[in-house]
Amino acid sequence: MVHPTAIIDPGARIHPSVPVGPYCVIGKDVEIAEGCEVMTHVVIEGPTKIGKGTRIFPFCAIGLEPQDISYKPSDRTALEIGENCIIRESVTISRGTVKGGGTTRISDNVFIMAYVHIGHDCQIGRHAMLINGATLAGHVTVEEWAVMGAMGPVHQYVRIGAHSYVGGGTTITQDVLPFTKAVARREVATFGINAVGLERRGFSKERIARIQKAYKIFKRNNNTQALVLLKAEAQGDPDLEMLVRFIESSERGVIK
Hints:
Layout: E1 7-8, E2 13-14, E3 25-26, E4 30-32, E5 37-38, E6 43-44, E7 48-50, E8 55-56, E9 61-64, E10 78-81, E11 86-87, E12 92-94, E13 103-106, E14 111-112, E15 117-118, E16 123-124, E17 129-130, E18 135-136, E19 141-142, E20 147-148, E21 153-154, E22 159-160, E23 165-166, E24 180-184, E25 188-193, H1 195-200, H2 205-220, H3 223-234, H4 238-249
Parallel strand pairs: 1-3, 2-4, 3-6, 4-7, 5-8, 6-9, 7-10, 8-11, 9-12, 10-13, 11-14, 12-15, 13-16, 14-17, 15-18, 16-19, 17-20, 18-21, 19-22, 20-23, 23-24
Antiparallel strand pairs: 24-25
Helix pairs in contact: 2-3, 3-4
């Protein structure tokens, strides 16, 4: 299952079912679970743990040192990748930093398309999708089912909310509210909720309508007023409570 040109450190733990293609280099402290596939010219350094069924396409650089001037080679930081992820060509994913918690995490069923960069200490939720060339600085959180559009850079410490959609080429410098679409025109702004995506995920029309109403409250009021109105509207609704928590915990502000 291992091509003769591949170089694998004796300290790596690779399940016997995993094919490793030509010219791959896998370092020590790398753990690759059963059902994975590592194609040609892939470099993986550790500590890195890769879950079952994840496929890594050619020319990826996975788990290398973070691009952070505070990092020291002696720092013990890590990368964790979940199960059934797809990591396409020329993707780069950095390990964490000590100051950022130490670990970059990719959850299960994440689809990472070609030329994406995921910086140190990023946290990527399950079923998230990063389209070709999306670039995440350090400490970015992409929540579950969010879609990050092609060629879009994201500022450090920003959060991309659950079920949101960021249009291609959009520069994100503030948090993107869950369920919304953020698109760059003259400036970055949200333009309604991500209704098509929510429908595809099985959200009922009634549920989408409640989210739409909450979004209009957020859009038409300043954040302080919106929080008061949304708290009154939530009444145990988990989607609206998610919006409230997201706005309250934002450190960089939320895109309107």
